[in-house]
Structure prediction request, 271 residues.
Amino acid sequence: MNKIFKHIVCRNGIYANKIQRFIVPDEYIQWNVDFDYKPPFYESPGIKGKPWADLSIDDPNFKPQFNAVDGNVNRKSHIGDYQVVNNLPLNPFGRTGITGRGILGRYGPNHAADPIVSTWKRDENNEIVKHEDGNPILRVLCIQRGDTKEIALPGGMVDPGEQVSVTLKREFIEEALNGKIQESELDDFFNKGDEVYKGYVDDPRNTDNAWMETVAVNFHDEDGTFLNKLKFEAGDDAIGIHWIDVSRDVKLYASHAKLIEATAAIRNAHF
Prediction:
């Protein structure tokens, strides 16, 4: 599944609306290819001192154990061991045009979880709507991000020591239900998920030394009766709620469209 992600979103362009990435042509992405590479360094002042962020790499009190579970921080990658050069982890997918952590909290992998909550599109007679290709149309619940204003899955970061299954449910409640429901009310629904993807994701926050990885799980309501009972409301850092009809024309944040494409495949839905 890692082959579905190309190193595109996190390469070239302006990072976090702050600093120009060093231009990296396609043929020079991989670390083992010689390249006159002079990327700028950037770490957001906003991450310093945050409880969810590492200390600076040059802080004498910071002694990270990369490729391992380091205390309650998981520094292991879903895709295997990554290189560490001069005490800095290297992005396993290659050069990004910028060094440092950028706006990410952790050096190395930053683990997230993305719940993909879906049901079938239905007509006024409650019949499943099919595309002209004969496949049923899947609907997926998304949020509008407050930072970039883009449509995205209601996911978020895995807290230190937290199980991914807990993150999936917590993030959905915070972003799509504005915290106005008890976790226990979603237990049955969130116990029946199908893992869609687990690994590296092409994300605009990625740098040479810090990158996003996710576990994406599809929670599907076949007849829509459970989801119809919920009152959806944007919360946390979301500013809107959107049900999208899944197709290849959908534009989403980072690599989320690829995650939805993979979901459509396992549901035999139109894409």
The chain is about 10% helix and 25% strand. Residues 53 and 105 are 4 Å apart (CA to CA).
